[in-house]
Amino acid sequence: MIQTYFNQLEAAFAQFTAVSFVLESAIHLEPRPGNQGYVYGTVVFTDQSRFFFREYLDVAAGKIEKLMYTYHYQDAANQLLFRYDNAQHKPALLFLEHKHIGDTDIIQADAPVLSEVLLEIAQMREWV
To answer: Domain tally for the chain?
Structure first.
C-alpha cells in the first residue's frame, strides 16, 4: 500500500515539475518497516524561490496517515512565504494542523496534498 502512494506521489510530482518555471527538483521515497514511509524533496523555481517538503506516513487499514509533515515555501531571500505542518508549538496552539503565513500569522489548516501545495505556489506566483 505504501508503494501505491509512492507511485501516485511520484507521478504527480513529475508532472508538475516538468514545467518551464521549475529549474530543478528532487523527490526521495523511502519505505520504512511496518508499512510506513518517508518522503522528502525540494523544488527550485525560476525566480529562485524554494519549496521543501517532508512526510512521514503510516498505512493502517488501507488508509494513509501523515504522522508528520511539512510543506515549506520561501522566497529567493530565504523569507518564509508559507508553511503547512503539524508540529507541536510552545505555547501550544488550539489546533495541531496549521499553516504559517509569513513569519507572524498561524491559521488552522488541514493537511494538504503535495500536488495542492505545488498548485498553490504556481497560482501565488501567477505561473498558471
So the answer is: 1
